[in-house]
Request: fold
Amino acid sequence: ATITVLPATLAVTANDVTRAYGMPNPQFSYEIAGFVLGEDASVIEQEPTVSCSANAASVPGDYAISASGALAANYAFQYLDGTLTVTKASAQGGGSQVAAVGAITYGQSLGELPLDGTFSDESGNAVPGELAWSEPESHPACATATAEWTFTPQDPECYDAISGTAAITVLPATLAVTANDATRAYGTPNPQFSYEIAGFVLGEDERVIEQEPAVTCEATTASVPGDYAISVSDPGYKRFENAMLGGKDFVFRGAPHMIVVATPKNAPCGKFDCSIALTQFDLYAQSLGVGTCWCGFAYYAFTLNRGMRSLLHLPPEYKVGAVMLFGPPAVDYPRATDPEPYRIIRP
Reply:
């Protein structure tokens, strides 16, 4: 009698895989199912070839992964396609460099601050597009340390828009304080001097003044007729200026040392981190009998004066977070006494 033995069918399934746009295809793989009589992949005489029509330039989407060409005695093959999913690439995959160029003055919009940056994908290819501040019409205050930017790729089909933050510098706007002229007769006391302030921005006015300027004149009731300058100044610092000229160190308190703690400008809690670090230093210094003093004058000098800040040689992406003076203590504080030695009495 004649019998017909048909080959058993093996199912070759190409495995699904995902990659980003612009990247080469990964090594494709497959699964084979349907062996009989306890046989396995060792009976395969020729491995299947797995391929895909997509290449690095293929736009995001789904592409078939096909297998073919397998050989094995006693078996036929059925091929089931897999799927290559090409996703949008990251315009920051290869890194990015974004920075504000220069500074703006309070009252200017954020959009007036130039922004420069470069972007590349994971393959190192430059990604063209538009880089801009996310809120260009906003008017940052001087205390603002960072602002958000958005990068919109020229090819939105292949790259996602991304955003981030960059450090910014907002300089204070300048107000002109002019002392008004006044006239009086010889021998009479000076009148109440007045002044005018000009230069407010963003619709603001004198209500934002936190401390009125001092208006003074060196003329007294005994001054002979003539012209005398009426001067305006910041009264808050006048007493410190006089003290410094008198030989009293109001800024550094005679401390021989100073520690400055800096933080990245874009750190979300940078100032708090600096305060925590110096608090630990403060406690440890006190335990060693070293005196300490937080120095707000130095902090603002380094923060507001670029010349002073340059003395610290900080990287441009860092800012001063806190300043502390330390040295031999000038004041002794009562401390808790150490406990007497004790014994443990057991019954």
